[in-house]
Design goal:
mainly alpha; 9 helices; 2 strands; 65% helix
């Protein structure tokens, strides 16, 4: 779209970078440390866990609702469609920041590992981040924050359908980003009650989201993706691979 307002475009790009990228980095630090902002509400026991559960559900509902086709069609009547991915990134960043800021830690310790296991889990955490980056680079035209679509629109170019390609970790598992993210979630060696709750909730959400994304990918790529499904495991690598 050649008439895209450049100032609006740059403002949305900036907000998407600050909130989208910033919240992801904050969440990774949160996963590594268990808590990064000392906001203590004085909650305890079931009340504390219920509050943390509500924070996770807030993010899940926002994140999942905004990717539904009906919502996309509705919001596209209110804003320029080229802004959608960036706006989605902005709202996701806000909800993720709120969860990280307000998360309450429990004093109930379920697992307190020895030092050697702590260091081992930290290595796994860092390797998982490397794997996550590997998966992103293998996608080529990965644009989760909607920056590319806005820049192309500002230059009068259209956004093309991303071709179906299989490279890097996608040759061994269909959703390597989700796999590495699950490893990141479970790699914290100190398991408290609130952390176990987070691990379980986010694991269930990722698995459900994977099945929903599979349906969208089949709809987008048809038989080509069905053939990929037959040859490559979904989340857990196995003997099958994409040759």
């Amino acid at each position: 779209m050649q008439d895209t307002n450049r100032i609006t475009g740059y403002l949305i790009i900036t907000a998407s970078i600050i909130l989208g990228v910033g919240s992801l980095l904050a969440f990774l630090l949160f996963l590594y440390t268990g808590k990064i902002f000392p906001v203590d509400t004085g909650m305890e026991g079931i009340t504390l866990l219920a509050f943390d559960c509500a924070l996770s559900l807030m993010f899940f509902i926002q994140h999942s609702f905004m990717v539904r086709k009906g919502f996309k069609e509705w919001i596209s009547r209110l804003i320029n469609p080229v802004y959608y991915s960036a706006v989605y990134s902005i709202f996701s960043g806000i909800s993720l920041f709120l969860m990280v800021f307000l998360w309450q830690t429990s004093d109930i310790i379920i697992l307190a590992p020895p030092d050697w296991l702590t260091w081992f889990s930290r290595i796994i955490f860092l390797l998982s981040i490397c794997g996550f980056i590997w998966g992103i680079r293998s996608l080529g035209s990965f644009d989760p924050y909607g920056l590319g679509s806005i820049r192309r629109a500002m230059k009068g170019k259209t956004t093309l359908m991303i071709p179906f390609t299989v490279k890097g970790p996608y040759r061994y598992v269909r959703h390597p980003l989700y796999l590495f993210f699950l490893i990141l979630i479970w790699s914290n060696p100190s398991l408290t009650a609130d952390r176990l709750l987070l691990n379980i909730l986010w694991t269930l959400w990722i698995i459900i989201g994977t099945f929903l994304e599979e349906r969208d990918l089949v709809s987008a790529y048809g038989e080509e993706y069905r053939d990929y499904q037959k040859k490559v495991p979904m989340l857990i690598p196995g003997r099958k691979r994409w040759d």
